Amino acid sequence: MHLPPIPIEQFLARPFHLFDQTWLLLTCGDFSAHDFNTMTISWGSLGAMWNRPFAQVVVRPTRHTYQFMERYETFTLAAFPEACRPALQLLGSKSGREGDKIAEAGLTPVAARHVPAPAFAEAELVIECRKIYWDDFDPARFLDPAINRLYRDDYHRIYYGEILAVSGVETYRNR
């Protein structure tokens, strides 16, 4: 991977912008075994929990990526330049069950530095994570009734991943 490492204490992120505006690719599986899948996500969080840096992502059980998240212990999150927006749109709208959507999107999977899950050559940020917790959303606990309107009985599974490594362009480094 060509991106320079960023020490976690120098990682500079605008989480709302990353998830809601830039979008991220969530990729899990094993690069060396060529057994992985990716999907575009726009919901999640970054922070500190249990004295560790974490990334939190959600995946619906109906998504093809879900089976990879269940089977594998690591995942990556990748941000891309705006020129890759069409690829991210395709990867968020097509299922990997029907073919090689990554090849169709024109992105190049590459080995990540610290985890078996792949990164992408075109990425400008890669966050490498190891799963440390999961839970399922319970609609009975939604305090705002409007949240439930975003679902049709396909509630997300929440995954917390300990951030093991961050690599990226200077934009993501705080000196």
Which descriptors apply to this entry?
175 residues; alpha+beta; seven-stranded antiparallel sheet
Characterization of this structure:
This protein has helices at 15-22, 64-71, 85-93, 101-105, 145-148; strands spanning 24-30, 35-41, 44-49, 52-59, 74-79, 109-110, 119-120, 125-136, 157-168. The chain is α+β, with helices and mostly antiparallel strands. It has one domain: Electron Transport, Fmn-binding Protein, Chain A (Pnp Oxidase, Chain A, Roll). Strand 3 and strand 4 (52-59) form a beta hairpin. The mean pLDDT is 95.
List the helices and strands and how they pair.
Blueprint: H1 15-22, E1 24-30, E2 35-41, E3 44-49, E4 52-59, H2 64-71, E5 74-79, H3 85-93, H4 101-105, E6 109-110, E7 119-120, E8 125-136, H5 145-148, E9 157-168
Antiparallel strand pairs: 1-2, 1-5, 3-4, 4-9, 5-8, 6-7, 8-9
